[in-house]
Backbone:
């Protein structure tokens, strides 16, 4: 289950990255009303979170395939 869960979440997050990146680049045209910073800076942490999630799931997948962390 750990292998399946990590693989499923990692693949779905990796699949979402290109669409989210396109949206971040599209929102670069608009600025926030109060601070005037581009919306791309507001939405960029979500793309970073997706990349971190893919890396984390890949590490969890490797650990599960090696049999590490399966004490329970």
Residues:
């Amino acid at each position: 289950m750990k292998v399946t869960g990590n693989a499923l979440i990692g693949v779905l997050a990796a699949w979402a990255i290109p669409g989210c990146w396109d949206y971040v680049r599209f929102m670069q045209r608009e600025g926030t009303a109060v601070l005037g910073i581009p919306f791309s800076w507001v939405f960029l942490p979500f793309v970073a979170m997706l990349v971190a999630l893919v890396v984390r799931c890949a590490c969890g997948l490797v650990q599960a395939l090696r049999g590490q962390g399966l004490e329970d």
